[in-house]
UniProtKB/TrEMBL annotation:
<dbReference type="GO" id="GO:0009295">
    <property type="term" value="C:nucleoid"/>
</dbReference>
<dbReference type="Pfam" id="PF00436">
    <property type="entry name" value="SSB"/>
</dbReference>
<dbReference type="GO" id="GO:0003697">
    <property type="term" value="F:single-stranded DNA binding"/>
</dbReference>
<comment type="subunit">
    <text>Homotetramer.</text>
</comment>
<dbReference type="GO" id="GO:0006260">
    <property type="term" value="P:DNA replication"/>
</dbReference>
<keyword id="KW-0238">DNA-binding</keyword>
<dbReference type="InterPro" id="IPR011344">
    <property type="entry name" value="ssDNA-bd"/>
</dbReference>
<protein>
    <recommendedName>
        <fullName>Single-stranded DNA-binding protein</fullName>
    </recommendedName>
</protein>
<dbReference type="InterPro" id="IPR000424">
    <property type="entry name" value="Primosome_PriB/ssb"/>
</dbReference>
<dbReference type="InterPro" id="IPR012340">
    <property type="entry name" value="NA-bd_OB-fold"/>
</dbReference>
């Protein structure tokens, strides 16, 4: 059961071209957003579409794959873990971020 702890799997469309950074020592990091869609029927029987946006970060080899093959609009599947962090913005206000740290990426569609 330990392998299922803090495991996230998402299939969605990339919202923007990934932002790739080269860090000291040659390591890469990729930042991107993925949109997932869901639908349900409301009380009136009308279909309601709902889109959720997810921040995704990938490191090392996974970031290299994203850099080579992933562009805005591409449908991908990612697997990783959910993380939370905070930082102080330029005005000294605390900001909170929830993101998925991707371990694997699968290219879907065309």
């Amino acid at each position: 059961m330990n392998a299922m702890r803090n495991k996230v799997q998402l299939i969605g469309n990339v919202g923007n071209d990934p932002e790739i950074k080269n860090l000291d020592g040659g390591k890469k990091v990729a930042n991107l957003t993925i949109a997932t869609n869901d639908s349900y029927k409301n009380d009136k029987g009308e279909k309601v579409e709902q889109t959720e946006w997810h921040k995704v970060v990938a490191w090392g080899k996974t970031a290299e794959i994203i850099e080579k093959y992933v562009t805005k609009g591409k449908e991908i599947a990612i697997e990783g873990k959910l993380t939370h962090r905070s930082y102080d913005d330029k005005n000294g206000e605390k900001r909170y971020i929830t993101e998925v740290v991707a371990n694997d990426v699968l290219l879907l569609g065309k």
